[in-house]
Each structure stands twice: as structure tokens, then as C-alpha cells.
Amino acid sequence: MVERVEITEAAATLVARLAAQHGPLLFHQSGGCCDGSAPMCYPAGEFRVGPQDVLLGSVAGCPFYIGAAQFEYWQHTQLILDVVPGRGAGFSVEAPEGVRFLTRSRLFTDAEMVVLAAARPPERGG
Questions:
Q1: In the chain, where does DSSP find H-type helix?
Q2: Which helix (H) or strand (E) holds 114?
Q3: What total number of domains does the chain contain?
Q4: InterPro entries, per this entry (predicted)?
């Protein structure tokens, strides 16, 4: 199975700590508003997922969504959720920790694209 989204060990450790504090979480890949195109982490239920949001998969037990328009541009890449020192957006739950989530990416191989093309399209939110 080809995963559209992955997570680094450092990010998974932070997600576990944040989930212990805030309960279930979800991620949404921002489309460029307040903090560029940063992945945003919210307590589940505090971000309204709509029909324009595409579910890329799950990282560390948390659903990871991206807007449909942004997915059109990034559908040929695997997103890799990482964490780096620094202050991100105040809306994302990691902001008080002195770190921020960051999306890295890599192009899918031709073989992976064949597998993805044969699979069902990702689900939509809402």
C-alpha cells in the first residue's frame, strides 16, 4: 500500500504528547493563509472538515486532511509530517511548545503512481 502521508519519529513523539494533553487530534494542511502552507494540528472537533477537504490518511492515529485545490497540485507527492524548532501559527496546538510542524515531501515513483491510480480516490470530509 502506498501512503499519501507519513510522519517522522520526532513528530510522532510530539503528537503522542499533545494527544495526552488535548485528546484526539486532527491535521489539516493549510492552504497558505496565516502560516504559509504549514500543517495545522487541532483538537478533534475544533476544526470543521468540509466536502472540499481530502483525507490523505492517518499519522500517529490522527486523520490528515488537505484542501481539494491544494491536493490537485500535490497529488503526485507524498507528504511527510515533521517537527522543527521555532514558533508556528497560534492556531495549531504545538505553538506553545516552541516547535512547529512542517511538511516535507517527495515525488511518488512511477510504480507508486500506478498503485495510486488503481486505488479508489481519497475520501472527502464533511
A1: 9-22, 68-74, 110-118
A2: helix 110-118
A3: 1
A4: DUF779
- Whether residue 101 lies inside any domain: the answer is yes
What confidence tens digit (pLDDT) does each residue in 27-73 have? 999 676 555 578 999 999 899 999 999 999 999 999 999 999 899 99
Q: How far apart are CA 18 and CA 20, in angstroms?
A: 5
Q: What distance in Å separates the CA atoms of residue 15 and residue 107, rounded to the nearest whole number?
A: 25
More confident residue, 12 or 89: 12
Q: Give domain status of residue 51, yes or no.
A: yes
Element holding 71 (H helix, E strand): helix 68-74
Comparing CA positions, the residue from 33, 10, 18 lying closest to residue 84 is: 10
- Residue pair 50/125 in contact (Cβ under 8 Å)? The answer is yes
Which of 96, 98, 56 shows the shortest CA–CA distance to 80?
56
Structural domain including 108 reads 5-118
**Domain CATH number, residue 80:** 2.60.300
- What is the Cα–Cα distance from 25 to 45, expressed in whole angstroms? 8
CA atoms within 13 A on the CB side of 62: 32
